[in-house]
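Structure first, sequence second, as always.
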């Protein structure tokens, strides 16, 4: 797959995320991350951001199948996995951005386009790739996986 990247470090993060997502139970998350990269390449930035955060949500829900949204999965995972409260708050805020920005995870109502550009999509792809690796590796270290 070919997609824009901002740096060699970001490339390494994305490659690591795909390696972490290689397990069968993460097929959905892997597909979302792949779709995010495809949309980024095609210039569909809001779709890329949505797919990036869906990859994170899929990992969270795989790790805690009773959670129906990422915030609930993080709250339940925090009981099993050591996540610093400030990091949990940051993760929750990152998720909230995709829920709040019109046209990313919700229908466009007032405006014809989401306020998302290539820089936003690049950041979210890298951030969400790192996020999925973080969750998977924390789960492994904590015995959840």
């Amino acid at each position: 797959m070919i997609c824009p990247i901002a740096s060699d470090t970001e490339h390494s993060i994305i490659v690591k995320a795909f390696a972490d997502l290689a397990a069968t139970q993460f097929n959905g998350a892997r597909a979302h991350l792949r779709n995010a990269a495809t949309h980024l390449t095609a210039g569909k930035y809001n779709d890329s951001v949505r797919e990036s955060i869906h990859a994170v949500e899929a990992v969270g829900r795989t790790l805690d199948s009773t959670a129906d949204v990422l915030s609930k999965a993080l709250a339940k995972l925090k009981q099993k996995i050591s996540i610093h409260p400030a990091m949990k708050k940051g993760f929750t805020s990152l998720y909230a951005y995709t829920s709040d920005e019109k046209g990313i995870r919700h229908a466009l109502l007032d405006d014809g386009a989401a306020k998302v550009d290539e820089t936003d999509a690049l950041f979210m792809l890298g951030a969400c790739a790192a996020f999925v690796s973080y969750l998977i590796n924390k789960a492994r270290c904590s015995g959840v996986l």
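Margin note: Residues 118-141 form the longest helix (24 residues).
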